[in-house]
Design a protein that fits this description.
The complex is a heterodimer of chains A (115) and B (113). With 115 residues, chain A is mostly beta strands. Chain A is built from no helices and eleven strands. In chain A, the strands form two sheets. In chain A, strands 2, 4, 5, 6, 9, 10 and 11 form a seven-stranded mixed sheet that branches. In chain A, strands 1-3-8-7 form a four-stranded antiparallel sheet, with no helix packed on it. Chain B is mainly β. The radius of gyration of chain B is 13 Å and the shape is globular.
Chain lengths: 115, 113
Amino acid sequence: EPEVTQTPSHQVTQMGQEVILRCVPISNHLYFYWYRQILGQKVEFLVSFYNNEISEKSEIFDDQFSVERPDGSNFTLKIRSTKLEDSAMYFCASSVAGGPGDTQYFGPGTRLTVL
Amino acid sequence: AQSVTQLDSHVSVSEGTPVLLRCNYSSSYSPSLFWYVQHPNKGLQLLLKYTSAATLVKGINGFEAEFKKSETSFHLTKPSAHMSDAAEYFCVGGDTGRRALTFGSGTRLQVQP
């Protein structure tokens, strides 16, 4: 069964550094998403992406964050100048369609630790 | 705006006994509701979803959930727990006009032998 994959599984970085989290969505999916979960808190939506554009973003997704689909398979989340509070588990997801009832398939997550 | 509340952060059952994980939602519109499960070091796996068809939804691994509009609830049940059911379970809502999913805080299910 096709799966969403994410690399790396764990990333450690120094405060102020840039990180890129990578995801390979399911191949025939058209909608892509990033969510994050700070330890002890709920999973929160960051951004959705369709047709090479951001289609929805949350308040969390400020200028520090960017997303890109650099080729036909990868979907990346870049965090510029990381802060301690960016430490979290970041989940990538994809779906065939973008409606509220369409199933989003999640990857295993990347644990980001900012020191 | 959609909000989802999972009423128990931790549930412990004995193997072979019923499982009940509780979820309430609030939404201005007809919601889409999902239950996902997360095993350690694995992604979030869809158990089942409700999208305004049948109110009783059957999912994988013997789980089912009933949408009750009058109670704004979408509780997850299973008649007989198995050791492999031990995991974190998330009740998740989708709202009309939005792509973002709204997550509950999660319920950790422990299954005792």
